[in-house]
Amino acid sequence: MNAALRLTALPAVAFALVVGVAGVQVAAGGGDFRPLQPADACDERPGTTSQAEGIEGLTEQLVLRGVDAAACTLGVSREALTLELAQQDEPTDAQVDALRDGLRTAVGEMADDGVLPPSSSLVDEVLDGAAINRFLAAGIRALPDSVVDDALPTEDVLLRAIDELDVRAVLSDLDDADALREEVEPAVKQAVRDELLDRLRNLV
Amino acid sequence: MHRLVGLLLTVTVGLVLADSAIVTLALPEMLQELDASVAQVAWVLISYNLVLGALAVPAALRRVRAHPRALAAVGIAVFAGASAWCAAAPTIEVLIAARCVQALGGAFALVGALELLVARMGEQRGVAAWVTAGVVGTAAGPVAGGLLTEAISWQAIFIAQVPFAALAVPAALAVREPVPADGPAEDPDTAHRPVVGHNVTLGLLSAALTAALFLLVLLLVEGWRHSPAMAALTVSVIPVAALVAQPLARWLQPPPDVEVAVGCLLVAGGLVGLALPPSADLIWTVAPQALVGLGLGLSVDQLTYRAMEGRRPRARHAAWTISSRHLGVVVGLAILTPVFTADLLDAEEPATEAIASLVLDAPLQPQDKIELAQALGAELTGQRGQVPELSGAFASLEVAPEDRAAVDDLERDLDDQLDRAVSLAFRDSYLVGAGLALAAMLTVGAGAVVRTVRDRPRTGVAR
């Protein structure tokens, strides 16, 4: 083997091996093997993959969209806000305000997207869970859907319910389904009552 | 008998140098069994390298006054006794103390064994056996330690060394041949100066190799949660590739400096490859490890030979190479450990956010998500400071049968996120290791330039 070949053969083989190995690793995605980056909370997110139906499904979608909007307001990711809320003893005033505004924004967005269900589709579920006189419940069930939908537009009821909601209490009861129901039900009932009274006042 | 003595002494050299990294795969088990902190467990590794690196040269100076047969026998006996003590250590403090004594015996054993191997096999073959045993021991240490830990326990690593070392004591005493004289340089005042360049390169390269021999096994066992046996099998690529390096070098016949520089380049390239795995699949570590192994095989023995070549006293120059290698390992640990521990800590946030993102979007019932999020939070908090095991959170989750597939998918996705976070946390350390290997390569180039200038014939300038 001549001197030039002795000088260059091994470096050439080594260089080819190094470039080959690093090239294959990078081409297969080596540079991108990192944890999922949280999306910008202000960007539109594809629809949620909620498996729940009825009020629970609606609530989940509202909460996910609402947290997104709140995170956008606070300038953090949806994930960072969720973790902060889970790890703090008490949410800050700014977080509570942002969450309430976020939920309101979420209702508006869902209404614009046409994904808010008519209130008539939720009546049976509400009546099943409510401690209400069974004759009154039967009477309400007998009402035509159009009457219920006109009397209780879902968007308006939800906005009222959000205003009634004690966000701090809801956050502290997230892990207790019964306590959560006790927080949410009065707010929804109050919202329904206020909405009906408003409608009646307008009629008079 | 003649061959058995040589073999036992060679195995002892391999064992002493393998001990530099042999406990790497056993560290998690030691951490648990001895109820130690991560910093304490790291000292099991550091103390041995530090003492061996610091005592090799003084041990070689003793050799000038003591007979190598006695020096080797005493050193090997101390090494064997301390190995047994390591296995019986009830606390981490005792284990660290025993490791220091083990390294003390090892330093004398290495220096004495070199002289006895030269006496038995002649200068060239004796030095070659000593150097090769060191390279194979260094590369195979983590593999042997991992297999023994998995098959038996971490104590087995130390117990397994005792019979070999115990047999090597009479073997050392049985060497009757006179040790070839070191010549006039036997007098310390007239001895050759240590070869600074090669030893510095050796130190830098050893620091870089720490990233492959120490961090990789940590990533495989602690990060990607493989068993020590699987990790040991995986890192066996390095010693196998190191053995392939020699035939390759003989075939291509490069000049020695080129061979060493290429070795450094291959180690650097392998570490860059390890820094960029496309997934946590073990297959992606094979080719980078092969580069590291080839680089180790091309460079470490060549550098050791050249640092000792024609220099007297032989034992003292051998001791300088041992010092360079083991203090290099200590420097490597000192540089790399804070980098990857800080990066691991930093990785907690993106990993937790990625987990939160997947749970929020999981196709599960809202109440199941809340329950799972709470269980995951408890697991993450309870296991803070280490790579968490999330299966406990999933084990306690009761879901409808139709949601089971979604839960399994989610668990797999969350584990993938942990793998990604841990791999990313190790990236900087591997790249620092690659930088150290490139620095070693530059010292080869600088050394070659210095030698060229020094050896150039001086000529007068005619006017």
From TrEMBL, chain A:
Would you say which domain of life the source belongs to?
Bacteria
* Designated name of the protein: Uncharacterized protein
* Species, as recorded: Nocardioides zeae
TrEMBL record, chain B:
Q: Which Gene3D superfamilies match?
A: Multidrug resistance protein D
Q: What is the membrane topology noted in the UniProt record heading this document?
A: Multi-pass membrane protein
UniProt keywords (A-Z) are: Membrane, Transmembrane, Transmembrane helix, Transport
> In which compartments does the protein localize?
Membrane
Record flagged with keyword Nucleotidyltransferase:
no
- What's the chief localization of this chain? membrane
Q: Which residues cross the membrane?
A: 42-61, 70-90, 96-118, 127-148, 154-175, 196-221, 227-246, 258-276, 282-305, 326-345, 430-450
* UniProt-recorded Gene Ontology molecular function terms: transmembrane transporter activity
Could you tell me which Pfam families the record lists for this protein? MFS_1
User: What do the Gene Ontology cellular component annotations say?
Assistant: membrane
PANTHER family, from UniProt? MAJOR FACILITATOR SUPERFAMILY MULTIDRUG TRANSPORTER MFSC (PTHR42718:SF9)
Protein name as annotated: MFS family permease
Annotated organism of origin: Nocardioides zeae
